[in-house]
Amino acid sequence: MLETTRTYRAKIVNHSQVSGDLDQCGFSASKLWNVARYYTQGRWDEDGEIPDDGELKSELKEPNDTVTSILSQVRTRRRSRLVMPMSFAH
């Protein structure tokens, strides 16, 4: 299977308007990272295996209060001001 990775560079032109929302998205991403780390550590302690990305994605998709809350925060932020004008440099 061919896999392509692209990197986009963007310049935020309204930083003062979106900085709080970007901070909140970063905070939410950090929470998701910690949930994934906690699950991975539990699996390692349980059976010495590190879960693959498919298992982690599946685990994070299952309804649980923490993940549901975090994803809700991310959706709310994205819907509010994060639909922002950006200029992309290729």
Provide the gyration radius in Å.
17 Å
Lateral strand order in the biggest sheet? 1-2
| Secondary structure tally: strands | 2
Task: Give the integer mean of the pLDDT values.
Answer: 76
**Domain count:** 1
Terminal residue distance: 26 Å
Shape: extended
| Helix share, percent | 55-70%
Structural class, by secondary structure, is mainly alpha
Uncertain parts: 82-90
Largest sheet: 2 strands, antiparallel
Order of helices and strands: EHHHE
Strand content: 5-15%
Can you characterise this structure?
Helix 1 packs antiparallel against helix 3. By secondary structure, the chain is mainly α. It has one domain (16-81). The protein has helices at residues 15-47, 53-61, 65-79, and strands at 9-12, 86-89. Helices cover 63% and strands 9% of the residues. The chain has a two-stranded antiparallel sheet with strand order 1-2. The radius of gyration is 17 Å and the shape is extended.
